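EI: anyone free to look at a 221-residue chain?
SC: sure, send it
EI:
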Amino acid sequence: MKVVATTRKEQGSSASRRLRRSHQVPGIIYGGSNEPTPIAIEHNPLYHALRVETFHSSILDMELDGQPEQVLLRDIQWHPYRQQVMHIDFQRVSADRPIHMRVPLHFRNQEASPAVKQSGGIVGHVLTEIDITCLPKDLPGFIDVDLSNLESGKPLHVRDIQFPAGVSPVLRAKENPVVATVTIPGAEEAPAAATAAAPAAPAKGAPAAKAAPAAKPAAKK
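SC: here you go
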């Protein structure tokens, strides 16, 4: 996706307010061998671009004063109650340096899994995005998560996912977060109901309950 920007010469809160009144968004580009560059971007095209998922997780082609730059979206500041972008940050991309990015997870084949088809389970998505590292050329717009083999009682973890070539999850040594789980309707209610139906055991030291007296025989006439 493409972003058109111009270098912003005036800085400070007053200059930023003037930009916003003229339907521009103040921002900055940092990283690489260059100094951070203050920029301005037209608001409405940027606002609509931000509604597209891939704009947040893809390498963007920026045209800055007519010159090409490759950047990543790093931060957005929104107005507290208006649909208005107040400030935006981008990071320059170097082709030979790995990047660290948070990308969405796209789940598929959920309804075809044994957990759903055979056990009638309900699949819960614990994670909807994930931190990855890769070279810029290998950056995916999303990570595909195949749930076709998901079984009840066996949650899916991050290390179970098949990542694209050159892409790795950002995890500590033994970290392996749960990505998806399965809940079987009624599985928890049944034991609870059985427990409620069982007679309560007498408290320790309490006298045992007396047996009910036998019924008296009917008097002869």
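EI: DSSP finds four helices and 13 strands in the chain.
SC: 👍
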